[in-house]
Each structure stands twice: as structure tokens, then as C-alpha cells.
Amino acid sequence: MTNKETILEELYKKRGSFVSGGELAKRLRVSRAAVWKSINSLRRAGYKIESAPREGYRLARVPDLLLPYEIKRELATKVLGKRIEHFREVGSTNDVAKELASQGAEEGTVVIAETQSGGKGRLGREWFSPRGGIWLSVILRPRLSPDEVPKVALMLGVAAAKALRGTGLDCYLKWPNDVLVRGRKVSGILTEMDAEMDKVNYIVAGVGINANNDVDDFPSEFRHSATTVKTELGREVSRVAVVINLLEELEKSYRFFTSGKFEIVLREWRDLARTIGKEVRILTHNKTIEGTALDIDGDGALLLQLKDGRVEKILSGDCIHLRENF
Ligand code: BTN
């Protein structure tokens, strides 16, 4: 634990009362001046910490930010989130994570931002990322060949949908990994990788969740196709709790995946998804086709039955559910 994390732990233990600077200095084996420096750095991060002569420090308010300590203090994972980098604003958390990964950052490193000025969506689209949402990326280093990466995408969708269902949201998956409520997108995933011919060096799994942001703030072109958790539930949710759930669910699925039990993830995906059996339109980088979604196969590919009865295996693309009823 860092000095700041230890100080927070002590302040939390005695929430509501003062902890003396001397006590903190003793616990950390540093000077009182060093304690004071760490306290100021916590204040700059957004914590409201009161100080009183001869009494010490008291935690008065925790900011509504996705601060690493707030996540870590409840997080029950072994690998994911051991290192969390938090930013008020970045271009794209995926780009920051890729930079860290190329410098050797460990598997499980998480990058979180309160806002993104250049959030990236799938297929080269922009991803609107205002305050109140959850924009995070996780570095994974599985031993995989690049053609197995679509499986990781399904796994991420399962984790995101389960984490969101934990808030009470009646959400489901649309192939490959969009999370929808009443046909509107609440969460999306962008998986990027660095790979050689036969080996993945790292994967950056970017998850965007419209949590406590408002639908009215979306650019007009998305207002009818997107929604937020707050809009659907009629109340704000704890973003920290959603991130914790997401990382815990992701670690569970990732364990199945890396221990050769991908069929468990596939089963969960099928239970959560509403694509199978539907008439769909698929947009790939070079064509648009329509048909019935029959199933997903063991590679995570969508099996699409075309009008002429042929079955095509689709590895990646955008999927539109036709004739959706709510
Ligand atoms: C999609 O188009 O559905 C994927 C959206 C992915 C958005 C997330 S937000 C965190 C991470 N950083 C990015 O720039 N994009 C992903």
C-alpha cells in the first residue's frame, strides 16, 4: 500500500473522528511533515479532509470519482485492478493502456478516466464520454493466438452485462458484446491488441458504460439509440460498485477462459444474449448481409443463416436486430 492509501485506511477506520498526525506518522514511519504532504495530495485528488490543531485529520467527504483507493478497498480480485491509474480526463483510456502495456505494465492494470476527449468506439467511430459515465480499459496478457481474440470480446460482454444486471438493470447482450436495455445501448466494448503472427502480446479491453450521465446530453444522433443506467433506473448508481462488480465478473470469466473452460462463458453469453433466433442485419467492413442468427460457435463467431439457406460464419462486424419488440 502507498502512504496515501494507508492514511486513507486509517481515516476510514475512524470515520467521523480525528486521527492524530503523530499516530499516522508512527504507522507510516515517516515525519509529520510527510503525512501533511500526503494529506494535501489526497485533498488535491478530491478528498475533503479537515484538520484541527492538536486533534489531527478527519475524513469529511469522499468525492464522487472513480478513485483507485475507493475501488481497491472493496475489490476481491487477485489480478485485475491491482494497479489502477485514474485520470480526470484523457484522450482515450485504451490509448493510455496501450502505452502502459507497451512499456511492460502488468496484466490486470486498469486505466480509468472521468471523461475522455477522444473516446473511441468500434469500427472507427467516436465514443461520447462525458462526466458521470464509466470509461475504463484493462490490460490482459493471455497466451493466445490472434484468431482467438473474438472469444475475449464475448467474455467482456458477459462481464459487463452481469455487472450491470447487479444494479437491477434488465439488460441483455447483442452480438458480439453490446449491452442493451429496451433496444438501446448502455455499454460498449472495444478490444484492441498487439500481436505477432501466432501470438498475442497484449490485449487492451476498453469498456464504456453510460452510468450516471444523462441521455439529453448525448449528441442528437445517439439520443434514440443510446441510454444510461440512471435514465433506465430513475436513480443514480454507485459507479465505484459497478466498477468493482465489473472487474470481479471479468476476472471470473477470464479464469474460465484461461483454464480451458470457455464453454462456461459461452453458456453465460447465450443466456444473456437476445441475438440468437433473431432476424439480423450484419455490417462487416466490406458488406452488409441479412439472415437469421442461428448460434455462436466455439470461436465466438456468429453463425448466420442466409435467405438461400447457406450458413455463414461471421467473426466480426456490427449487428442490428431487425423487428425488435418491446
Ligand atoms: C463500441 O463502439 O461499442 C465500443 C465503445 C468502447 C468505449 C470504451 S470507453 C473506454 C475505452 N476507451 C475508449 O476510447 N473506448 C473504450
Describe this structure in words.
This protein is an alpha+beta fold and 326 residues long. The protein is 31% helix and 27% strand. The protein contains nine helices and 14 strands. The strands form three sheets. The chain has a seven-stranded mixed beta sheet, sandwiched between helices. It has a five-stranded antiparallel beta sheet with strand order 13-12-11-10-14, with no helix packed on it. Bound molecules: biotin. Biotin binds next to helix 5, strand 5, strand 8 and strand 9.
Question: What's a quick, concise take on this entry?
Answer:
The protein has 326 residues and is of the alpha+beta class.
Ordered list of secondary-structure elements with their pairings:
Elements: H1 3-13, H2 21-28, H3 32-45, E1 48-52, E2 56-61, H4 68-72, E3 84-90, H5 93-102, E4 110-116, E5 134-140, H6 149-165, E6 172-174, E7 178-181, E8 184-195, E9 200-209, H7 229-233, H8 239-258, H9 262-272, E10 279-283, E11 288-296, E12 302-305, E13 311-314, E14 318-321
Parallel strand pairs: 3-4
Antiparallel strand pairs: 1-2, 4-5, 5-9, 6-7, 7-8, 8-9, 10-11, 10-14, 11-12, 12-13
Helix pairs in contact: 2-3, 6-8, 6-9, 8-9
Bound molecules: biotin.
List keywords for this structure.
single chain; 326 residues; alpha+beta; seven-stranded mixed β-sheet; binds biotin; 31% helix
**Secondary-structure element order, as H and E?**
HHHEEHEHEEHEEEEHHHEEEEE
Bound molecules: biotin
Helix content: 25-40%
Span of the ends, CA to CA: 49 Å
Write out the strand line-up for the largest beta sheet, numbering strands in chain order.
3-4-5-9-8-7-6
Oligomer: single chain
Q: What is the percentage of strand-forming residues?
A: 25-35%
Mean pLDDT: 94
